[in-house]
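Can anyone check this?
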Amino acid sequence: MVEIVGQSFTRRELARHLGDSTQAFGVDLVTYADGPERGMRALRLRSGGGLEAEILVDRAMDVGAMSLFGVPLGWRSGNGFRHPWLHEHDAEGGLGWLRSFSGLMNTCGLDHIMGMAEESAEHFDYPYRAKVSHGIHGRVAFTPARLEGYGVDWDGDAGTLWAAGRVRQVTMFGENLELHRRIEADLGGSCLRIRDRVTNLGFRTTPHAMLYHVNLGWPVIAPETRLVMPLERTIYTAHDPHATAIGPIEQAPPQVGFGEQVYEHALRRQPDGLVSVMLANPAFNGLPGTTGLGFRLTWDTRAMPAFYQWQNLHEGDYVIGIEPATCHAGSREDWKKRGEMIWLEHGDTRDYRLDFEAMVGAEALNAATRLIDARD
């Protein structure tokens, strides 16, 4: 049975009520027609259970927007969802990434994450390439995907909405990496599942790093919002934590002149390697008959052992980022010395998983909090 807008159906019963199933749910391919998004392909997914998501095909199949019962969850910057043809990765000394940065999820990688960096290119063994220059958070986020397909798959009376595609980051005499991404949601559900595989298609030993920049905005982020996580300790801050009254857990209203704050937190993981964090606004009352709004992120720490929190409460740029990653805080040279840099030979792969769950109501938030806080 599937539950669509609060009613349970078998697949046959649902077909009796719908001449075209897209009346209630589905995945539709659209193209933007105006503004900086003009010409960009996107997939609009509707679960039939209140979940809607927009998958930006021409921006690495990242998740641009996500909502539950019409309430927006993700953050959208003043950039909008800029078409990748306008993107200039190497502009502004490596900060060109920021002119396209926007959306619920921006994939950082496939060979670099964090700030700008430069390193020797000796691993590519090409005499005219002495160094590799990396802009902030790498190149992949604004690279178009080759769309493999999308639709609804049925298994008896259970349905799954899905989309899949491949993104290649490649240059002659350099990296040749491919990201295969599949995104799924249960029919009638409120969870989005992302499954990624990165493969070295080339024949040169190539560095690999990944970070998922998951960005939540208002009304998930509000003065009442708390970051719920199985915290062991905070192991790094990019700012001086003693110079601010705003810490990582309790959020605040939009601030005048707020300087971004970045933390790396060490988290307690479950025996299967999974860990969850949640941004919860228990005071949200924008839906009739219920109070509370939350977003939970779950990932596998065996593939991504590091977790960062980006706190940017500046007025007009009001956002919290929750960011699993393959490398802990430090430079590329630090990662190499600590053995955290992943080196891929031809055919080597790395798999990643993320689950995005939207929830409303105090009962759902309390249940999620108990699960996150649970000890073995």
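Reply from J.R.: I decoded it. The first strand starts at residue 2 and ends at 4.
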